[in-house]
Write a sequence for this structure.
């Protein structure tokens, strides 16, 4: 076990369950209920950041193609052009 690793999904669920019990809240049954609960607590605590739905979408960026991938693509383009 790596003590420096982030918590596991099971640990996060356990923490969430305990927090729900401490706050007399029912553990959410689905994503919508979880989102509502999270948003309610964010508002109650005065969280300064806007909701995710209110944020503009970040532009999608394409990763640079590696030289090896470019050589493979060029090889396939040449093969395709020889076939026609």
């Amino acid at each position: 076990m790596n003590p420096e690793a982030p918590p596991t999904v099971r640990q996060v669920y356990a923490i969430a369950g305990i927090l729900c019990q401490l706050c007399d809240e029912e553990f959410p049954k689905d994503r919508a209920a979880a989102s509502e609960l999270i948003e309610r607590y964010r508002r109650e605590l005065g969280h300064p950041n806007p909701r995710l739905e209110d944020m503009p979408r970040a532009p999608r960026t394409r990763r640079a193609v590696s030289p090896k991938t470019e050589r493979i693509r060029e090889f396939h383009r040449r093969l395709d052009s020889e076939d026609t």
The chain has three helices and no strands. The helical segments are 9-22, 31-45, 67-83. The mean pLDDT is 88. The longest helix spans residues 67-83.
